Amino acid sequence: MRVIAVFGPTGIGKTAVAIALAERLRARGEDPVAVSADAIQVYRGLEILSGAATAEEQTRLEHRLIGFLPVTETSSAGAYATLAHSEIDALIEQGRRPIVVGGTGLYLRAALAELDLRPPVDPEIRSHWQRELERHGLAALHARLPSGTGIAPTDTQRILRALELQDAGHAPPPAPGDPSQLWTSDTRHPTLLAALVMDRDALYERIERRIDAMLEAGAQREAEQAAARGASRTARAALGFEEILHGDVQAMRTRTRRYAKRQLTWLRKLPGAHLIDTTGRTPEDVAADIHGMI
Hints:
The structure is a single chain. By secondary structure, the chain is an alpha/beta fold. It folds into 2 domains: 3-114 and 184-293, 3-Layer(aba) Sandwich (Rossmann fold), CATH 3.40.50; 123-167. The longest helix has 20 residues, at 249-268. The relative contact order is 0.19. The protein is built from 14 helices and 8 strands.
């Protein structure tokens, strides 16, 4: 295996496991580097909300593709894929070991495989639907979608994307959670996928503690500063961003738990993944399991 991917739900401790694994790899003469596969960690200025590796953690394991994009820029899986492929290919060519660390399913696939992305549409079509949204509201636009899209009536981004693709004569975007978009076993390099799972109640407890630590570290100030700088819609999609701006920490907790639940459900169905139960275990124990699979 040339690439190791450590994937798991938010709050499960992926960074700590990657660092412990890197220490084991170094002991056998390897030179590992982490490559982040997270839709929000790409942003500079959202380090707390995204749970990006801290400066101290990055001294223990070099991390790539963290904090390189201003919060005013729009992020996309396609643009990220180009960068991730370049980083991973260069590391392999240098004889180094890429450890892809992520919590965003689409970005994990983007890093490890090829994406089947719909083409961009004429900016004028996009502007048209933006004007329609302002004129008629989101519910009216959702009603114009064909049945069976699986798009929630509150999902502005997906509704607009579906309508503009339809207008341009392209196939609709895949339904949210569609496994054909979120994962493929056909990776670009031989890859060991270590899927970290945990007892749900134990994970929820970790999430509660993590949110408390984020708040203490200044997550609200971070969100306010990003909003004041004109954070893009993709930056504002960070878990807890909108909730914390409105002072609703409980909503932030609820949304994070629900997201983690969806991640766990998807992980357990992931073909080719090695499921590793981390409940009650140290990062070193979990890293030993992964190391034994290489």
